[in-house]
Amino acid sequence: MAQSAKNGNPIRLWGGRFTGEIGPLMDQFNESLSFDRVFYAQDIKGSIAYARANVKTGILTKEEFSKIEDGLRKALQEWQENKFKPAPGDEDIHFANERRLGELIGKNIAGKLHTGRNRNDQVATDMRMWLRDELNLIEHYATAFQSDLERLRFTRSNMNKLRLGRSAVAGNAFGIDTLQMAEELGFEGLIMNSMSAVSDRDFVVEMLQCASTIGSHLSRWSKDLIIYSSLEFGYIKLADAYTTGSSLMPQKKNSDSLERVASLGGYLGP
Length: 270
What we know:
This protein is mainly α. The chain contains 12 helices and 6 strands. Helix 3 packs antiparallel against helix 4, helix 3 runs antiparallel to helix 9 and helix 4 packs across helix 5.
């Protein structure tokens, strides 16, 4: 549990063996909160599920879990209302949420949340949950591209396996109920090999491949519509709501919306 030391410097989860302070340059270099803060909701949901499962192991009492859940939900609300204030030493979203939890409910109970897990557990789980949530949104817009939709669904199913509970590499020593956590967090199954669970980021590559293919298809579709709406073809007529005009030629209608989609398609993917 990140907390304040007597000299005002933060104590880090990994700092047990250190006697000196981390250098400010290294602090900046090592910081990832500016990137992984987008995982705030997934990190909190994962922590609640992990804490709930640890009631079964006896690490947490029901009362302690209740306090942890309430504190995490308050932190979630702060993120949602843009009121969450990162503190020095919050090098990533995991530290930030656990540090805030300690402020809300006290460090003695909040510190138990990290028992038996580490950030390898958390970041891989958060990333899978975040990508899964984003894919759910994309699916609503992809029905016109049937092959892309099928590819997205396959990618979602492939990534939707629980990693939480594998710790750094060797698994969890407290007999935590991973099936319970998988059900609570909406995962379809477990990653059975701990070493694979720790190192695997193939699901990110697969998602980027999907995005790249969709971008290519969107670009082709947009260019087709631009050609079909031209005077030479005239198959379709673009609505005024999705076009712009020309300051030089008042009769001209520009297919800017389609041209932007065609060009932006190349930004999707790796």
